[in-house]
Fold this protein.
Amino acid sequence: MAKILDGKAVAAEVRSEVAAEVARLRGWGILARLDVVLVGDDPASATYVRMKQKDCAEVGIESRVHRFEAHTSQEELADLVERLNADTAVSGFFIQLPLPEGLDPLALLSEIDPARDVDGLSPLSVGRLSIGLPSLLPCTPHGVIQLLRRSGVQIEGREAVVIGRSNLVGKPLAQLLLRENATVTVCHSRTENLPEVARRADLLIVAAGRREFVGAEYVREEAVVVDVGIHGREGGGLVGDVRFDEVEPVVSHITPVPGGVGPMTRAMLLYNTLQAARAAG
Ligand code: NAD
C-alpha cells in the first residue's frame, strides 16, 4: 500500500507559517495585500477567486478584486496592470485566467512587474526561473516540489518523468525539478511509448488534463506518483489524471485527488504574496 502524500496537511503547515510571518510583518507596519483582476462572468473563475480571497482572509492577507465586464478593452486592462505595478499598497497581483475571447493574456502578463507576479507566469518570471535567477515561482509546480520535499521524498539524482508540457504546469515543473537536481524527461501528446517512458520514473508527475488515463502499466514499484489533474466526477466529487485505485497498490507514494496538489497550489499563492510583501517592505 502506498504512502499518501497529504497535500491538505502540508498546505495547512504552509498556511500557518505564512500566517505567522504575515503577522510579524504587520508588527513592522508592512501589510500583505493581494489584488486580483477578474474579467467576465465565467462561474468557475469567480469561484476560484472567492476561494483565493477566503484563503487570504484566513492568513491575514488583505485582498481586493478588480472586476471587469467581458467586453473590457485590452488597453483598459493594461492601464490597470500599470497602476497595480506602481501601487505601493499592493504586494502582488494576478490576472485570473482564462480571459474572455479577444483579449491577449500574454501581452498583459508581459507587463506585470516580476516582483509582484504572484502567479509566476509572466515571461520575465518564467525566464528568470529558467536561468536560475530568483523569482516568484508558479504556484502549482512549486506546490508539487514543496509537497515532495516536506513529505521527505528525495528529488535529487532521481529520474523524474513529467507528463504534460503546458506553460502553466509541465514546463515550469520540469525547470523546478532540474533545479532540484532530478534527471528530467518531459512527455506530451506526441510522445511514443508513453507507458514505457513513464515506467522509468522514480517520480512520475502527471499533468495531462486527461481524466484517469494513467493506470498500472505506467508505473513501477517504488515510484512516487503526483497527480496534478482535476476533473469533476459525475454526481459530484473530483478525480485526477491517474486511476488511483489501480495505481495506489503498486507504488510507494501517491497524491490523492482531491487533497493532493490542489491545496498546495492555493497555499503557494499565499506564500508568494508573503514573499512579495517582504521584498517590498
Ligand atoms: P493543458 O491542457 O494546458 O496541457 C496538457 C498537457 O498534457 C499538454 O502539454 C499535452 O501535450 C499533454 N497531453 C495531453 N494528452 C496527453 C496524452 N494522452 N499523453 C501525453 N500527454 C498528453 O493542461 P494544464 O493546464 O497543464 O493542466 C493539466 C491538468 O492539471 C488539468 O487537469 C488541470 O485541470 C489540472 N490542474 C490542476 C491544478 C491544481 O492545482 N491541482 C492546477 C493547474 C492545472
The chain has two domains: 30-112, 139-262. The pocket of nicotinamide-adenine-dinucleotide is lined by residues 140, 163-166, 168-170, 187-189, 191, 194, 207-210, 228-230, 261-262, 265 (CB under 6 Å). Residues 38 and 46 are 8 Å apart (CA to CA).
